[in-house]
Design goal:
Elements: H1 5-21, H2 28-43, E1 47-49, H3 51-62, H4 80-91, E2 92-94, E3 97-101, E4 105-109, H5 116-129, E5 139-143, H6 147-163, E6 172-175, E7 180-185, E8 188-195, E9 209-213, H7 223-232, E10 239-244, H8 254-266, E11 274-278, H9 306-316, H10 320-330, E12 338-340, H11 344-348, E13 361-367, E14 375-383, E15 393-403, H12 415-421, E16 424-427, H13 434-447, E17 449-455, H14 457-469, E18 475-477, H15 482-497, E19 501-502, H16 507-515, E20 517-520, E21 526-528, H17 538-552
Helix pairs in contact: 1-3, 1-4, 3-4, 5-6, 9-10, 13-14, 15-17
């Protein structure tokens, strides 16, 4: 594992000079991390930088071998950007005791595909077996949302890395059933294991190091896990490493950590023991400008394919959901958890008249809405593919209802026009007339092949029960969550962007489409946001549920309205 400190020094200094001069494309956060390092070299008295120690930690990766994938059999060679990040993290030591590291917490962030998990595994194995100074009997954990995820993405690669080092074999015992690695050395036993919010052994840990993977995906329910790991870090030389991609303002654990890291880099917060290194595109960068992609992707051109990034960018140009995902996962740029979903020009691409649909197969989506407001039932028709395109072709039709005594003023736009068109039906009373909804569905089923209708059981159980029990129409409980909505929402947007859906220029649908704002959960899944959307979106919500039925209804057998068919969970 020998690595010449002078060679490393030249590599790191050359890389830092190239970034600071602008020869190497880098985002502001990476520039600030390097500026901080250079400034500290000149100004800090409480800490010293040791190239020999930095070289020890960089060299560790050269000793690791990949055992599967396209790099099977190859050593884990860090590129100059990774060497720089690793050297700065580990080379800084306390001036009064160089056996103690300067940084006790590190925040590392880069775009998806840049080897975060293998790098995390490399760090974990080193801190477990070969830290400087070596911690005898070290207890090391890697942390993710679930124990399974922690096991698959970091712990198993760590096992493979350790088993690739022949000199360590006599000291390493792997207990796969218990998900535990033991390192027996000098009459001590170290342990390395994965943790998730579903783990049973969260209390009582005394950790030398903890690797927290993908903080952006953690939700409020994971807070206890992260806090217990943090309080379990014991000893003067313990280290916590957070390694993640960007999140959104909905990522409740990630956002404050990211904000803190960027404030440290900007010098707003003076925290000498906190390390931050972030590869990200800047806020003002055009996401479709290829020249800025290097900022978020230190492995661009090697592990990260420019052609694949171009494919993702192409898909993102006309799909707001995919654009959000492209910016977040591939440009490592924080995004809003709410986005306007359907550009008017994209929706207008489906304005052509619909066909004669009598007798054709269709799938329904019912959004009951509030008791005294809009209710919508829309049908999606899968048709023979015009021009045999790769995507299927659909037509979308339907109707909405509103009670006459609604709190809304039906004499003001857009309601008179929508009512006159016949797309919005005014019913007597001050609550939604469920008889009108059921009557429409039953009459529709006489003229078309209705395969199934989906609705939220929280506010449409009466309709669902009667449609199934009395009229024999198959129904499905569509519970309102990002996980359920994500795939059909993306499918609808893809169809619109590709010109593969016709809606006949429906004014009601166009109005609702222009209102729709989407919200993302921590995992990046999306659903329409009724609270934040500017106006009513029930017709589009119903359309998305109908799209979902067209995607998934054929995969399951008929079940009762009272059952929630988990097999179709998205």
């Amino acid at each position: 594992m020998a690595y010449d400190p002078k060679t490393l020094q030249k590599t790191v200094n050359d890389y830092c000079d190239s970034v600071l001069s602008g020869l190497t494309v880098a985002g502001k956060s990476e520039v600030r991390a390097i500026q901080r390092h250079r400034r500290d070299l000149a100004e800090l008295d409480a800490f010293v930088f040791r190239w020999d120690i930095a070289a020890h930690h960089v060299a560790w990766f050269d000793s690791l071998r990949f055992v599967r994938g396209v790099a099977a059999g190859e050593p884990f060679v860090l590129n100059p950007a990774q060497q720089t990040m690793t050297a700065i993290l580990f080379g800084w030591r306390r001036a009064d005791d160089v056996s103690r590291r300067r940084f006790s917490k590190a925040y590392l962030s880069m775009a998806r595909g840049n080897g975060k998990s293998p790098y995390a595994a490399g760090l974990a194995t080193q801190l477990f077996t070969c830290d400087l100074p070596r911690q005898q009997g070290a207890e090391v954990v890697n942390v993710a949302t679930t124990r399974k995820q922690a096991k698959e993405y970091v712990w198993i690669p760590s096992v493979e890395f350790l088993q690739s080092i022949k000199d360590l074999a006599p000291y390493i015992a792997v207990r796969r059933g218990d998900c535990e690695i033991e390192f027996r050395h000098n009459a001590t036993v170290g342990k390395f294991y994965p943790l998730g919010s579903d783990s049973n052994n969260l209390d009582g840990g005394s950790y030398h190091a903890a690797i927290v993977d993908e903080l952006h995906a953690m939700r409020e329910k994971h807070r206890e896990l992260v806090e217990k790991v943090e309080t379990g870090l014991k000893g003067d030389n313990s280290l916590q490493v957070v390694i993640t991609t960007a999140g959104s303002d909905h990522s409740v654990l990630w956002k404050p950590e990211y904000d803190y890291a960027t404030k440290v880099l900007r010098g707003v917060i003076d925290h000498p023991g906190y390390f931050a290194y972030i590869f990200e595109c800047d806020k003002e960068d055009d996401p479709f400008d290829e020249s800025c992609w290097q900022k978020a992707n230190p492995l661009l051109g090697s592990a990260v394919s420019m052609d694949k990034l171009r494919d993702h960018a192409t898909a993102a140009r006309h799909n707001p959901v995919k654009r959000n995902q492209f910016e977040r996962y591939y440009l490592n740029r924080p995004v809003s958890s709410r986005e306007k979903l359907i550009p008017p020009e994209v929706w207008a691409g489906g304005n052509a008249a619909v066909s004669n649909l009598a007798g054709r197969e269709c799938f329904g989506g019912l959004d009951k809405g509030w008791r005294d407001d809009l209710a919508s039932l829309y049908w999606i028709f899968p048709l023979d593919n015009p021009d045999d395109d790769e995507l299927p072709f659909f037509e979308l039709v339907g109707r909405s209802w509103i009670p006459a005594d609604t709190p809304r003023d039906l004499t003001k736009p857009p309601f008179p026009e929508l009512i006159e068109s016949g797309e919005l039906v005014v019913t007597p009373g001050n609550v939604t007339d469920h008889r009108a909804v059921i009557g429409y569905a039953v009459e529709w089923a006489k003229r078309h092949q209705v395969r199934t209708i989906a609705a939220d059981p929280a506010n449409a159980r009466t309709e669902l029960t009667e449609l199934e029990d009395t009229h024999g129409i198959e129904v499905y409980q569509f519970r309102q969550s990002c996980d359920r909505y994500n795939e059909p929402t993306n499918k609808l947007l893809d169809l619109l962007a590709a010109g593969r859906i016709r809606h006949g220029g429906s004014r009601l649908l166009a109005w609702a489409a222009d209102n729709v704002v989407g919200k993302y959960n921590a995992a990046g899944n999306i659903m329409p946001d009724k609270v934040k959307s500017g106006e009513k979106i029930d017709p589009i919500v119903a359309a998305i549920m109908a799209v979902s039925e067209s995607m998934f209804a054929v995969r399951v057998k008929k079940q009762s309205v009272y059952e929630d068919r988990g097999i179709r969970e998205l």
